[in-house]
Write a structure and sequence with these properties.
globular, TIM Barrel, about 10% strand, 8-stranded parallel β-sheet, 9 helices, about 300 residues, alpha/beta
Amino acid sequence: MSAILNEPFVDAHQHFWNLDLHPYPWLQGETVPNFRYGDYSALRRNYLPGDYARDTARCPPAMTVHIEAEWAREDPVAETRWLMEVAEAHGRPTVVVGHAQLDRENVAEVLAGHAASPRMRGIRNKPATVARREDARRGARGSMDDAQWRRGYALLERHGMSFDLQAPWWHLDQAADLARDFPRTQLILNHTGLPADRSEAGLQAWRDAMSRLAREPNVAVKISGLGQPGRAWTQEDNVPVIRDAIDIFGPERCMFASNYPVDSLVASYDTILAGFLAAIDRYGPSQRRGLLHDNAVRIYRMA
């Protein structure tokens, strides 16, 4: 079986979990409300380096970024310690983004615990958001506007940590203000800003929100999470969205990311990577290399 890509690339967003040994409430009894792909029961199984190797057999990445997988919040540093063991044994992940609840009193202690791990690069904390655009309000407790949450965010710079943001596009005005107010902290938008509404009006509103965020130079975006519930992942649906995101942020600030195994609910790894390759076929070798490899290496400090 031939490879679908014969040049090195980085997967900037992947997950491992071992449900036999470790606590992941969302996979072990709890249910995520409004999960964007609907039924996710197929994820309630172990997903470890061997599983990832199987899924990427035709397209193994050179390096990967492990994003926190919602380990039980009582001890998020334990997830990072476990991932250090996994990396030593299997060579993956290359670097890690951990979790810290930025508005908790112990956030400084948690960040220091993460920082003790040499592969640690940043934090993901999902701020308070709403599921519908019409319900979006500024200033909510636990949101990117919250003063206490921002005090925790300010501590990232002390450790040289980046911030991975997962939020619907109707909250990106908050993200733009956050990036502007903390210009020395790299902010990395997850899952292409979640353009779930594919109507023309919905996509235009997403593009407008992304354009506002892109004005802040310390923001990058990961191209991932583009599946739609109950619908096959197709290039017809997703290549235009990928190209819009790259046009808005520029090819120097975008990265390929699989979101595996979560996006296995909507597509094979090969399908997602092939769609990204189709979207970037109009770029020259240098920009293509950046989109596939060099941007992630730079932004996540992997060299």
